[in-house]
Specification:
single chain, mainly alpha, 3 helical TM bundles of succinate and fumarate reductases, 5 helices
């Protein structure tokens, strides 16, 4: 029986020429932030539970919250809350049949990204 000859074919051409679209990136980021919010939520719930236990439990949770990894997680969680909120509003517009033109959808995408950063910074100044 003859051995089948393997034909060496290039990768699909879209991998070399495809440019990720902003709407796809913002959609993926919405899913990532939604799942990432779980980490911040677990951290806050643990801290609140430690408050009820008092003593050493609270001291440990408070040290973790105020450590640099804790501050990073909470900061990213704050950004994720704003990003997820604004992306949800954008999605509501899309569901209503508005903002579906390519140019408008890209502007809304940039609005979600920039708006989430601005709102995160403003929240820090308010708090």
């Amino acid at each position: 029986m003859a051995e089948p000859q393997r034909i060496v074919r290039p990768l699909s051409p879209h991998l070399q020429i495809y440019r990720p679209q902003l709407t796809a990136v913002t959609s993926i980021l919405t899913r990532i932030t939604g799942n990432g919010l779980i980490v911040g939520t677990v951290l806050i719930v643990w801290w609140l539970f430690a408050i009820t236990r008092g003593g050493d439990h609270y001291d440990l949770a408070n040290r973790v919250i105020h450590s640099w990894p804790g501050v990073i997680v909470l900061t990213l969680s704050l950004w994720a809350v704003w990003y997820h909120y604004l992306a949800g509003l954008r999605h509501l517009l899309f569901d209503a049949g508005r903002g579906l033109e390519v140019r408008t959808a890209e502007r809304l995408g940039w609005g979600v990204i920039i708006g989430s950063v601005v709102l995160t910074v403003l929240t820090f100044y308010v708090i």
